[in-house]
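The protein record filed below.
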Amino acid sequence: MSERATLTIADGCATILLRRSEARNALDCDTIDALRCCIDAAASDCSSKRSGIRTVVLAGEGKCFCAGMDLKGVLHDAVRMGDMLRGLSSALLALRKLPVPTIARVQGAAIGGGCGLAVVCDFALTHPEAKLGYPEVDLGVCPAVVAPWLVRRIGAGPARALLLTGGTMGGEEAASRGLVTRCVPAADLDAETTALAARLATGGAEALACTKRMLNELDGSLDEAIAAEAAELSARVIAGPEAQASLARLFATKPQGGPAANPSR
């Protein structure tokens, strides 16, 4: 398992930690692969009758949760870019399928694919100074990979307005619009996440797993075809001339790639 993401288990809580803090935990191929390995390891543990996992917390090391897809290194490599998008879409689906409650601890920034990671979790906590959102259209990129999860989180109409407008927002607005479960003071984020995990762990393991499975069936979360189609659509658009020109201009002036470099609205 790559050190780009690690899985630790303590007191019934599994923590998946993105560990690319020098790049604001932006998602490149190695980080996505490491994330998927951690999710699969957690899923395997949960399937064991002796599993001690009752909740999973997804977190980012350093100042940011996840700054989104790291596209700079694959700007002119359509094949690798497609692999990244397919990998992320598959990881989101695997994260949703985990049979225990999942919590995103969102500090600093959750942009584009990073915000997708937050909304696919059952719960997400953030703080007022955080920056969340989907600026993809501002960059000529299609947010298809995250769109199904946002629709399931906040509904089709609100998701349509958010994705077509683009831009980012602070933690309080993200909470009011339903992207996250709660917005708490930054100093309380860790404690509130721990408290929520402990509260969820008091539920019956079988009852929680069955409830999650039913909810996933009801909202279409288990539809692998939609996840696959979304990845292919995003890959086609980002390989096109509009997105390539927009991203080339962005990376010519920014030291780091990814949607997080886009100005807030």
About this structure: The first strand starts at residue 5 and ends at 10. The CA atoms of residues 12 and 54 lie 5 Å apart.
